[in-house]
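Anyone? Bumping this.
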Amino acid sequence: MKKLTLPISDDEIRALKVGEPVLLSGVMMTGRDAVHKWLNDRFIAKKVEPSEDDLAVYEAIKPILNGGIIYHCGPVVGGVETGDYKFIAAGPTTSIREEPYQADVMKLFNLKGVIGKGGMGPKTLQGCQDTPAVYFHAIGGAASLIAQRVEKVLGVHKLDFGVPEAMWVIQVKDFPVVVTMDSHGGSQHAIVEEESKAVLEDLLQK
Amino acid sequence: MQDLTKDILELVRRTSTDLPADVEKKLRESYAQEADGSAAQGALDTILQNVELARKNSTPICQDTGTPLFYVHYPEGMSTRKLKKMITDAVVEATKHNYLRPNSVNAITGKNTGNNSGDEHYPTIHFEEVDEDQPLTIDLMLKGGGCENVGIQYKLPNTNLGAGRDLAGVRKVVLDAVHQAQGKGCAPGVLGVAVGGDRGASYLASKETLLRQIGDENANPELDAMEKQITEEANGMGIGPMGFGGKTTVLDTKIKGLHRLPASYFVSVSYMCWAYRRRKMTVQNGEVIYE
Ligand code: SF4
């Protein structure tokens, strides 16, 4: 199986095609609804003036995300009281909720990919082509297995968003994913959607 | 009254970390049916490894530990107020032990309570009284958010789908629901379907049907046949595990009929992901038995 180590280069991204399984290693960050909205409101749409803390967090995550990956995940984390963090369960969450923001976030940081489940829409697919980046599909619900592949929690930002919504910086080894949207406009989700639609049309006639 | 907080905590632990045997068996059968080396088989392989790991380490099967839905049958005379307190305390305790993720967010302020305390609807507890000599039973289902989001309610007739107010129409809208869900509810899933009721009762009943066992028979032969037909036809759509494409999209279908107003005909579909977490405890003469 193909293995990739973060940060990932544009060439490595361009070489990835829909349907390809990959094992990912290196440092990445979790981010879901609150994070994407926070990024959008402060640094993309600029609807809200960033606070000092916002700016500090932004500077801290920039190098991680340059050539890096955001993982759509709301983990169960142990050791929150002591700060001795450990990922206990960490499967992907549904990605489509970030559709309004994802392409802009990709461009903002030179992100090389996002990991999630369920796939994303046309705006993100275009973002994948432009940046370039890909969509990696993790196995939804495989929380214990993926948590085992998280070797270390390196830190956390915006814990006040709540444990599932915070930005967790993690070091992973051999994180199993499948490329379902590539940087050439290919989408496994579009293919399956279309093929299943044809079968459904047939069934509705019966 | 006997303090059951610790026993309910154990129920939560089992539910969150140990997938029921009927579900795991069905997943293994599905694995065997998928093509060797396919993304579908790979996904099911990861799922099954994950199930074993969660059981062994007593960690949540899925990090989204869902909405805790309790179904309590209590003998006449037992205090539901006290039972409710034990249940909510056990849920808070289970969160401390990481069997549950802090999942309860105030919809108005956006604040997460951090310990799964909520309001009179969270955790959700349904009480039903039984005779005095009957045991106390508590069923717990953990219903994930991703699959809850692909749940859907139809109002029949639906001209777009050519669905009228009969079982043939029900079949059409349920198949449409499966198509709309694609892999997003963490397919392969189980369909809980309620026909009739008002909007609220309909959704409620669609979840209750999910307490049934995989592969059991509906007491109504007409509904039983429809359940099997929908499962088979849904799998024919080829959506597959996670929507990667494949033969396994729906593990089972459960249908319940309700009474309705002449004016309304609702069909509610609750989609349960493969992480179909449900467990039961029975308390009789002070003794606690887990199924
Ligand atoms: S839909 Fe189910 S398996 Fe998927 S993330 Fe949610 S709870 Fe987990």
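Late reply, but here is one note on the structure posted above: Chain B has a mean pLDDT of 96.
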